[in-house]
Amino acid sequence: MLLAILACGERLESIDPTTLMPQDLSGMDLHGKAMNRIDFSGKLMIGVIMYSAEIIEANFTNADLREANLSDTIANRTIFNGADLRGANLDRLCFHGATWDGAKLDPRWHKVVFVIEEKLRPNQDLSGFDLSKLCLYNYDLRNAILLKADLSETQLSLANLARANLQDANLNAARLVNTNLAGANLMGANVTEEQLANALLCETILPNGQISNMGCDRLPGTTP
């Protein structure tokens, strides 16, 4: 929802900075607010509610974010160095360019941070990887091999998956708005017609083996 709002040019409501001055912000409801470039370093933020928020270039160095809800939040270029995020909900947290040196993360998210920082680029072999509930909004994954990968509930809107191998991949409830699937192979993938109706299909192999060219005229560089 947040990404859809921002894509339409709408902005989130900025919060009064004085609200964030206390050292202990535990349990505070800050969802849906814009808190870009705010310094939260060292603050106690246990159980803070920040889902669907925007915290671009914020600083959470050594903050205590245990059990916090940061799902569906945009945190690009945010500093999480030394922060304690154990038990936090980071589902679909967009953190392109964020730093995590010394951060305390649950085991799943240690792996996720590594995969996103080291593996998510064109032509990579990501067969069987668990990429579920991630924010891969606008990522370039052209020609990636995602055979049997788990992409369930993943935010893939505007991602470039042209010519990607998605055979037998799990795309259950993945968000595919304007996702480029031109030339992609979806044979056997778990994905619905409703999901694909929002994607860009051109010479795309569907789960049943048929070829779809329904979105060729919508691809970048084409004229109506």
Descriptors:
Pectate Lyase C-like, 3 helices, 224 residues, two-stranded antiparallel sheet, elongated
Order of neighbouring strands in the sheet with most strands? 1-2
User: Into how many domains do the coordinates divide?
Assistant: 2
The total strand number stands at 4
Query: What name does the CATH topology of the largest domain carry?
Result: Pectate Lyase C-like
CATH class of the largest domain: Mainly Beta
Determine the number of helices (DSSP H or I, runs of at least 4 residues): 3
| Strand residue content | under 5%
Ends distance: 28 Å
Mean pLDDT: 92
Give helix % range: under 10%
The appropriate CATH architecture of the largest domain is 3 Solenoid
**Classification by helices and strands:** little secondary structure
Uncertain runs are 4-9
The best one-word shape is elongated
The main pleated sheet reads as: 2 strands, parallel
- Cα radius of gyration in angstroms: 19 Å
CATH superfamily membership of the largest domain: E3 ubiquitin-protein ligase SopA
